[in-house]
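Final report, closing paragraph on structural work. Over the funding period we assembled a curated collection of sequence-structure pairs, and we close with a single example.
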Amino acid sequence: MPISLSTLADQVGGCTAALEPLFKRLEAYVLSAERLHGDDTTVPVLAKGKTDTGRIKHVERRRSLADLLAITASCEVEIMGAEK
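Its predicted structure, as stored:
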């Protein structure tokens, strides 16, 4: 069953709104680092019959995985609407 482009766009917008709390927490986590490492790699991407240049962006900071998991878990509670 075909899905219209406007319906797909609405779904992307809904996901964006739902993931906003997670994005904000991860943004704060990354930007709180003393030092960041960034990488910008180009990759070919097929787009409507032609090849465009896409980019993979990577930012890395030094902190423990446990800290990141704690941030993600607390944000998941907020997204689901539950009390902390």
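The radius of gyration is 17 Å. The mean pLDDT is 77. We thank the funder for supporting this effort.
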